[in-house]
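can u do me a favor
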């Protein structure tokens, strides 16, 4: 038995399918193949206001003050030239290889002599443990050769001697607990209040400071 297909009906059905596919709005949270997401952080006090450039194209709408963080920016993955430029045209540029579909935090930092560089860390934005906050720590204080310790308020230490430009693994912590931190060997213990944390959220905490007195923790929400 022959089945007859009306060409006008076939054209109509094809048009509906094409419209469904092409008219669907993209999800801004999805990173396409060949793209990555990166947020930029100004972690140096020298020449504090910084504009951001990728391969010579300016991405920042406003210069980042010290400790300010951009939103996540979608960029093409691969080997890209990242540049922070100050308001007096002091520029720091590095070539960084961004892997497709990976999310990054990229920092402008300076060492003990004031020499600046750009460093990047992967962010893990996968699901958190139920009822917990997920946190990683990064030491960006060049002056403390013994590193930084972090513990929960009850005294259990879980980060030991984190050195300059090192990142810890991720930890799941109860969001109602305060965190304590100090330079290894120093009795000057400081507190990160639990009001900074919410269950289900992911955080990067980076440390700045040149003395134990001005050691500071900066809490960045990653999701």
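np, heres the sequence
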């Amino acid at each position: 038995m022959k089945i007859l297909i009306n060409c006008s009906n076939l054209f109509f059905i094809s048009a509906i399918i094409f419209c469904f596919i092409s008219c669907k709005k993209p999800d801004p949270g999805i990173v396409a193949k060949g793209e990555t997401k990166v947020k930029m952080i100004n972690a140096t006090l020298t020449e504090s206001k910084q504009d951001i450039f990728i391969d010579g194209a300016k991405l920042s709408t406003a210069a980042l003050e010290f400790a300010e963080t951009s939103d996540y920016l979608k960029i093409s993955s691969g080997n890209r030239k990242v540049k922070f430029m100050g308001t007096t045209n002091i520029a720091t540029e590095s070539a960084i290889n961004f892997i497709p579909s990976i999310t990054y935090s990229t920092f402008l930092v300076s060492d003990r002599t004031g020499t600046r560089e750009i460093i990047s860390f992967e962010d893990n934005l996968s699901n958190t443990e139920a009822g917990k906050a997920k946190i990683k720590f990064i030491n960006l204080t060049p002056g403390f050769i013994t590193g930084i310790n972090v513990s929960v308020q009850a005294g259990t230490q879980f980060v030991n001697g984190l050195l300059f430009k090192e990142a810890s693994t991720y930890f799941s912590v109860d969001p109602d607990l305060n965190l304590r931190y100090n330079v290894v060997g120093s009795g000057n213990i400081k507190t990160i209040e639990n009001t900074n944390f919410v269950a289900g959220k992911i955080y990067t905490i980076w440390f700045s400071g040149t003395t134990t007195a001005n050691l500071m923790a900066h809490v960045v929400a990653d999701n």
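The chain has two domains: 33-123, 127-223. hope that helps!!
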